[in-house]
């Protein structure tokens, strides 16, 4: 009798495991869509609507960069970045192209300092950023495109504004496990 109960229990556990695996595969696209947001749609469009190819690419990004741990910035580095960004915004008035070039370089350096690939390849860096900051990475792409001379002053202005979202999230992210007082101070300094 106990043997029958054990066999039934094993069969039920195996059936449950099979169900969960099948269910997990069928919701993979929804999980990727939820994780990547607009980046999911951008990748599908780049693959001419082939969602399977786009999902393979996004899954590969997660495998390559998902375990990346963002490094914290020292407070003086955080302040220096904030000061440089303010200078970029001021520079835009007199020299939009130079400001966009500086914003592009500043974002690449900030991403590198936070632990993302150093941008030997812009695509490698944006792929890694998209895994962790999918909602903000497109502004960085727009700035990078503007640097290559595509678009007028209005397009550069919009690109600079959109790229600010990635700059802010990279600058404001707190260290992984800060002490309570550090977390409170980091929020206060980020708001200033």
Describe the structure.
There is one protein chain. The chain is elongated, with a radius of gyration of 22 Å. It has 2 domains: 2-65, no CATH class; 75-174 and 182-191, no CATH class. It is built from 10 helices and no strands. The chain has helices at 2-26, 28-36, 38-46, 51-65, 75-94, 96-113, 122-133, 137-147, 153-172, 180-191. It has 192 residues and is an all-alpha fold.
Offer a few descriptive terms:
mainly alpha, 10 helices
Topology:
Layout: H1 2-26, H2 28-36, H3 38-46, H4 51-65, H5 75-94, H6 96-113, H7 122-133, H8 137-147, H9 153-172, H10 180-191
Question: Major beta sheet, specifics?
Answer: none
Strand content: under 5%
Helical element count?
10
Q: If you compute it from the alpha carbons, what radius of gyration comes out, rounded to the nearest whole angstrom?
A: 22 Å
Give the overall form: elongated
Derived from helix and strand composition plus strand pairing, the structural class reads: mainly alpha
The total count of strands amounts to 0
First-last Cα distance: 71 Å
Tell me the number of structural domains.
2
Order of helices and strands: HHHHHHHHHH
Query: Which blocks of ≥5 consecutive residues have pLDDT under 50?
Result: 21-27, 175-192
Helix share bin:
over 70%
- Let me know the average pLDDT: 82
Summarize this entry quickly.
The protein has about 190 residues and is mostly helical.
């Amino acid at each position: 009798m106990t043997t029958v109960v054990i066999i039934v229990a094993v069969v039920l556990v195996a059936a449950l495991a099979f169900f969960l695996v099948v269910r997990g595969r069928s919701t993979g696209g929804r999980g990727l869509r939820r994780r990547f947001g607009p980046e999911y749609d951008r990748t599908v469009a780049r693959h001419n609507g082939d969602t399977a190819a786009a999902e393979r690419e996004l899954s590969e990004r997660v495998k390559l960069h998902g375990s990346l741990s963002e490094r914290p910035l020292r407070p003086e580095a955080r302040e220096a970045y904030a000061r440089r960004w303010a200078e970029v915004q001021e520079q835009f008035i007199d020299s939009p192209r130079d400001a966009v070039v500086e914003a592009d370089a500043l974002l690449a350096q900030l991403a590198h300092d936070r632990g993302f690939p150093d941008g030997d390849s812009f695509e490698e860096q944006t792929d890694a950023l998209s895994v962790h900051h999918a909602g903000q990475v497109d502004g960085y792409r727009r700035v990078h495109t503007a640097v290559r001379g595509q678009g007028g002053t209005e397009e550069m202005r919009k690109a600079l504004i959109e790229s600010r979202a990635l700059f802010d999230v990279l600058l404001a992210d707190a260290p992984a496990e800060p002490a309570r007082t550090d977390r409170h101070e980091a929020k206060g300094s980020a708001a200033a």
